[in-house]
Design goal:
Blueprint lengths: L2 H33 L3 H34 L2 H12 L2
Helix pairs in contact: 1-2, 1-3
Length: 88
């Protein structure tokens, strides 16, 4: 497997993990909304979920940007990108 393939696979794995976290966050929000006793509780849940999902989406965007960089990068930069995904 080439270095580019290795880096690409690591980034894609991270993106998939983040996507699953978004799905889990949304499922948990639906569960909490069903149990919420009043409008304020629902609003609080929606606010919390929105914040969490936005953070995850930002991380996904960063990972996708690094994937784009990896596709155009030289070997030294590829190693830096790979290391950032294998140590986090």
């Amino acid at each position: 497997m080439s270095l580019l393939d290795s880096v690409s696979d690591a980034i894609k794995t991270k993106i998939n993990e983040l996507d699953k976290q978004v799905e889990a966050e949304q499922a948990e929000a639906r569960r909490k909304m069903a149990e919420a006793e009043n409008e304020q509780a629902r609003a609080d849940i929606q606010s919390e979920v929105k914040k969490n999902v936005e953070q995850l989406q930002s991380q996904m965007a960063d990972a996708k940007q690094q994937l784009d960089e990896a596709m155009a990068a030289g070997e030294d930069r590829l190693k830096e990108i790979r290391d950032s995904f294998t140590t986090s």
